[in-house]
Amino acid sequence: MAEHEQGIPDMLKAALRSPIPHELRGDLGLGALVIALFLLQVFTGILMSLYYQPSPDAVAESVQYIMRDVSWGWLVRGLHHWSSSALIVACLVHLARAVLAARYRGRAWYWYLGVLATMLVILSAFTGELLTWDNDAYWRVRAILADVETIPLVGPELAAIVRGGSEVSATTLSRTYSAHSLFVPWMVWMLLISSFGLIVRDVRRGKAGGS
Length: 211
Description:
This protein is mainly alpha-helical. The protein is 75% helix and 0% strand. It has one domain (22-205): Cytochrome Bc1 Complex, Chain C (Up-down Bundle). The longest helix has 36 residues, at 170-205.
């Protein structure tokens, strides 16, 4: 079977049967850790979405319900929060290794995918913090959108799309929730799998570093 016809499971199986170059062991291990933490985020996020209500009038009550009345809800929310922080750290360490080893010189796509995935992971964590929709989150949204509006050409239109109107409202919360739970996770997943696939490809080829 040609390489381009193989899926990720086939590539991973082939990589597990191949000797792993010393220079790629750290990348492969960190890549697997990043994916595991991301999947934990997805799993705990799905569980919380069963009870979370993205409505300004119901947000606080639904969060308290998860923490107080749902069995193990406090643990699920805690895992979601702390795995988010761990995911950001793992992504940054992964990028730091690439910078220190100058691997980005020979792996432009690998580097760009990692940087973009890290930015989206940070964005996901930030939007998640806003979903409490308390006074602090509300004013942070207003301040951020005001800054976005200052971006030349696309700023006002982009802020209007996120805001869902002329003022921050329930629509803003709904769109923030959609971005956090749907759009950003799918983008991160595609980037992580693509980046991990490049590492697996290098393992199969026996390549090291930027060679």
